[in-house]
Amino acid sequence: MKLDYLQALKRVDKARGAWIMYGQEPLLEQNLLDAFRKSWSRQEVERQRYDLTSVSDWKQVFNALDSLSLFSQHLAVEVHGNTKPDANTLKLLKQYIQHNEHNLLLIVMPKQDANSLKSSFFQTVEANGVVVQLSANYPKDRQRILVIEADQLGIQLDQDAWLWLEQHHEHNLLAAKNSLMRVADTFPDQQQIKIEHLFECLQDQSRYNSFDLSDAVLAGNFAQSVKILNYLLEAGEAPSLILWTISKEMRLLMQLYEQPQNALQLGIWKTKIANYQQALRRLNPQTFLLWPELLLRIDASIKGLSQENPEHLIQQAIALLCGKSLFDFAP
């Protein structure tokens, strides 16, 4: 059986057999683990944890599932790692699923590729247990999850405030939750949060920030963009974060060029659509072919994997976004 995060939360108390949780959303993983651990505590279920480093570690897991302590009737074994069972251990998994109806084997794994999801291991658990993908790929899914977080904090957000929060954090649910906690602490008597509250609470208090850089490059204002870039670098902004801002804008512009009617579905804030459309009218689509390689060069230079100057390359990327070129592009 496949479940999403919210469906899995509702089944925690009755979870038995074998479950796999996988993905790269730390907020969802931690919330679901917390829910399991609280449930086990309430039901007086014994909990054991194993971190897998090799295939042989699986034998310890199944030995534990076969031997309850004298002080408990039910056992939850929490397994962390990305090591899948081999053929022999897979037999032990199948035997456990067939003969053990009272204990829980909870396997926590990172994001998996398509081939891994088609493996005998995943197929066995999906057919006889539960597989939970810890992801929220669409804005409406992320908002549903964050609404629960906001409710727990005793606040509600206007729709414009939700859109701003989504734009501010893009796909980072954990950072979005931290922002909800911050705004709830900043305005303890305010249950209905408006966009002004978020802006006042979360907007960077420095003279310029990454949002200013995004606005400047979308407007094609090269002089202002370089001015903001220099300020951010002097203020100690990590080049990797500046690269993230630039790559986000490049990605959205390329996607909007291919899908001009799907701005909202691409995650572009409603009030910013006109800015992106204006930028596309100014830019030559042929330059889009240069962007991916330039971004890779910037990333390599930031990591010290090349001799190129990352600040110079970042300036070139900003120039291209503004419809200009500082120097010949040479890989």
Automatic annotation (TrEMBL):
Ranges for domain DNA polymerase III delta subunit-like C-terminal come to: 209-306
Spell out the molecular function terms from Gene Ontology.
Answer: DNA binding; DNA-directed DNA polymerase activity
Protein name from the UniProt record: DNA polymerase III subunit delta
Entry's EC annotation: 2.7.7.7
GO terms classed as biological process: DNA-templated DNA replication
Q: What's the gene? A: holA
* Source organism of the structure: Acinetobacter defluvii
Q: Gene Ontology terms, cellular component aspect?
A: DNA polymerase III complex
Q: Which Pfam families match?
A: DNA_pol3_delta (PF06144), DNA_pol3_delta_C (PF21694)
What family, per the record? Belongs to the DNA polymerase HolA subunit family.
Recorded catalytic reaction(s): these are: DNA(n) + a 2'-deoxyribonucleoside 5'-triphosphate = DNA(n+1) + diphosphate
